Amino acid sequence: MTTKTSIRIYGVPMDLGQKRRGVDMGPSAIRYAGLQRRLESLGYSVIDGGNINAPVVEQIDESNRAPGNGLAHNVPSITGVCGLVYEHMKAAMGANETVIFLGGDHSIAIGTVAAAVEQHQRVGVLWIDAHGDFNTPATTPSGNVHGMVVTSLMGLGPISIGKQQLDPRQVAMIGIRDLDAQEKIALSSSGIKVLTMRDIDENGMANAVRMAFDALGDVDALHVSLDMDSLDPQFASGVGTPVPGGLTYREAHLLMEILSDDGRVRSLDIVEVNPILDIGNRTAEVAVELVASLFGQRIL
Question: How many angstroms from the chain centroid is the CA of residue 65?
Fold first, then answer.
């Protein structure tokens, strides 16, 4: 990030997109790890906009938890929260602020990405995740909406926010290593650039990022959606769906440093931090360290 624009932070303490409780405490954990202080030390003006209200699962009427066709839990409530996320994201971007949304589970990105696509006609989305999040209510084995986020953004999933769908050519995925059987088939034919852990192993992170940039083309802005389970569990254990064989600490930092050098990142999600499953809030601390690299912290 080369331009010191104002940064606005929102928390979205929602855990409705999956069944393992605790990610609703993610925004507090990341704030406690010193996110605002770290960004201010890098010269940014930082405004914390507080939390966007999200119901807890106990508040939801059982009859409203799944739609009539297919399997997707808590759709009406998630749709409501993502609609609020979408409006807050559009307002911040309209004020020329860089925006960081703290999850919460990954379903919050249905709102953030929808707003980014509308605000920037030429936007690319970097989906940094162990999972493809490319299920539908017809293919999901779990019914968890956080596994249907990208399909929802493309008009194939259970939730629709905003006026414009995400084109598969606008997405590049990095760190993928855990896909359901039907999801794998659908993602392979989707047109999305998918860089798996094997691609990173064979080519190195720097080349993988260049491959992602090449696939996205000459976009004006980037939205980064960072699921902390993209990292190997030895570096980020406090996540709900850990998968061995993920990004190393240095690979993740290099990714953020290259994105910082590129200078086009305008918005960021940090999701799936679960402090209940963590050790000494280390996963939130790593998240803050990665954000610092994205916003210009350097070794030398």
Answer: 23
Single-letter amino acid, residue 241: T
State which residues form the domain around 134: 7-294
Structure confidence at residue 223 as a pLDDT band (50, 70, 90)? very high
d(CA 59, CA 299): 47
Q: What are phi and psi of 53, to 5 degrees?
A: -65, 135
Any domain includes 299: no
Q: Quote the pLDDT of residue 63.
A: 56
Structure tokens that stand for 84 in this block = 């609020």
Q: Is residue 1 part of a domain?
A: no
In a domain, 166, yes or no: yes
- Listed residue (182, 113, 178) closest to 149, CA to CA: 113
Cα–Cα distance, 213 to 216 (Å, whole number) = 5
Tokens representing 39 are: 């960004």
- Please name the residues in contact with 50: beta carbons below 8 A apart, sequence gap of 6 or more: 10, 11
Structural domain total, the chain: 1
Residues catalogued as catalytic: 106, 129, 131, 133, 146, 227, 229, 272
Model pLDDT for residues 172-195, shown as the tens digit of each residue: 999 999 999 999 999 999 999 999
